[in-house]
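Incident log, support desk, overnight shift.

02:14 A customer reports that sequence design results differ from what the structure should imply. Their input is reproduced verbatim below. On-call engineer (initials T.W.) acknowledged and began investigating.
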């Protein structure tokens, strides 16, 4: 199983190496994220969003953390607590 947001980020930037360079991580770390071997640390989510110029939102990188990275529709309605 691949991490869809990381896969999309790689597509946008052209390579795992390009994404790694943009967020200051090793290419092997990006590979681990892509293959769901390691979860993306919350501290790196804003760097990933910036790396793709906001084309992928924070909640897409860590949908399991809605309290930190709420889906925009939930944030507007105040459903996330």
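02:41 Re-run completed on a clean worker. Output:
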């Amino acid at each position: 199983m691949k991490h869809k947001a990381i896969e999309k980020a790689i597509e946008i930037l052209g390579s795992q190496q390009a994404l790694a360079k943009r967020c200051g991580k090793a290419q092997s770390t990006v590979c681990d994220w892509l293959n769901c071997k390691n979860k993306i640390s919350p501290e790196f989510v804003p760097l990933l969003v910036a790396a793709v110029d906001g084309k992928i939102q924070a909640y897409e990188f860590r949908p399991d953390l809605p309290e930190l990275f709420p889906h925009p529709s939930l944030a507007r309605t105040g459903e996330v607590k």
